[in-house]
Specification:
single chain; about 290 residues; mainly alpha; Penicillin binding protein transpeptidase fold; 3-stranded mixed sheet; elongated
């Protein structure tokens, strides 16, 4: 190979010159050994270099369990904390749908009768009677009556007949959100939902939901259905005596009857009627009736 043309001092390009040892014949044989139909193994059909594949290291057990833990925490936050708060807030404005107990009774063949009424469409006598029978301190506590709980525990230890110490707020929380069976888990959830409804609903809404959801007979739920079933009148037309009878059967609505009460229900309803007058006189229902 020569860098310059003879007789010129300027370079005008590269030139191929035969080597002394092989000349043009060796060069031609070297070109014959190259096949134009073959491609280098490292080049794909488009002429691009193959992609570089980087092997990923296997995930450690610690990272997998970390993701599982974060997922569990997220589910607990959504379904255990945020979800109940959102549902409870919604029930502040819309009637709660069918409850667990209602579904259970339907499958037991007891039917379903429920007619929602606003608190203004329910007799004040029923409000006073229910407070007198179930929760005399309804307007003064914040969801729990610890004195009543202690008395109920002491009574249940010495008597075979169980007495409940739950407030109307606790009963409402159980009726709307939970199942009826007794357990420590349910009681814990009941306390949680009681705090929620006391904070998000207020006393009037708690009473309204309670009177529209409580069981008042086989397949009978709420004040309107109970009033029509037992006395043939709407809930706003209940007399004090009729209201006292309805309140009297609340502890055992599948056993006792308000329309045709036995001796025990008659005595109990008489005591409730007198206590309801005290509730009215001393303003013990002021948080509901004003």
């Amino acid at each position: 190979m020569s860098d310059t043309n003879p007789g010129s001092d300027k370079d005008d390009g590269l030139r191929l010159t035969p080597q002394a040892s092989g000349g043009w014949e060796d060069l031609a044989r070297s070109w014959d050994d190259i096949s134009l139909n073959e491609k280098p193994r490292s080049v794909n059909d488009r002429g691009d270099a193959p992609p570089i594949q980087i092997a990923q290291a296997p995930r450690s057990k610690r990272s997998v369990w970390g993701r599982v833990g974060r997922t569990v925490v997220s589910l607990v936050l959504v379904f255990g904390l945020i979800g109940p708060v959102l549902v409870t807030a919604a029930y502040r404005f819309v009637p709660p749908p069918i409850t667990y107990l209602m579904v259970e009774r339907v499958f037991q063949g007891r039917g379903f009768d429920r007619k929602w009424r606003s608190l203004d469409e329910i007799s004040p006598s029923l409000v006073r009677s229910v407070i007198a029978a179930e929760d005399a301190k309804f307007c003064s506590h914040h969801g729990f009556d610890f004195g009543a709980m202690q008395k109920a525990l002491a009574h249940n230890e010495r008597s075979k007949r169980t007495r409940g110490g739950s407030t109307i707020s606790q009963q409402t929380a159980k009726n709307i959100f939970l199942w009826p069976a007794r357990s420590y888990v349910r009681k814990g959830l009941e306390a949680y939902f009681t705090v929620l409804i006391e904070g998000l609903w207020g006393k009037r809404r708690i009473m309204e939901v309670y009177l529209n959801s409580v069981e008042w007979g086989p397949g009978v739920y709420g004040a309107e259905a109970a009033a029509l079933k037992n006395f043939g009148v709407s809930a706003d037309r209940l007399t004090p005596a009729q209201a006292a009878r309805l309140a009297a059967i609340l502890p055992s609505p599948l056993k006792w009857r308000a329309a045709k009460p036995g001796p025990y229900v008659k005595r109990r309803s008489g005591r409730i009627d007198k206590a309801a007058r005290t509730v009215s006189r001393e303003g013990m229902a002021r948080c509901v009736l004003g």
